[in-house]
Write a structure and sequence with these properties.
By secondary structure, the chain is mainly alpha-helical. 60% of the residues lie in helices and 0% in strands. The protein has three helices and no strands. The longest helix has 22 residues. The protein is elongated.
Length: 109
Amino acid sequence: MAGHLISKLSGAAAALAVALSACAAPQADPGVSASTASVGSGVYPNLNVPLQPATAQITPAERAATADELRARRDSQAATDSAPASSAAQLRRIGSSHAQGAISRIERN
């Protein structure tokens, strides 16, 4: 009878071990990246691997030079632009010339 009890306990322990191993997450291969891991493979990608850029990146000196060039262009454009006329006066002038041009085109045809 004691042997029968030990047999049942060892069977239960084996069943418990199998059940618990099914809950364990599979270990991801460190060489698998997020882009190469297949969906549904049961292997999770290692997202802690630093990404490798496809091309050379801009240096901080190049970034500063580009920003300075753009600022200089913006400032020179702002300095050469004259102050716009009031929009109401500009619209009246455009409207009167447009009306005269439209009437002359209609009368010619």
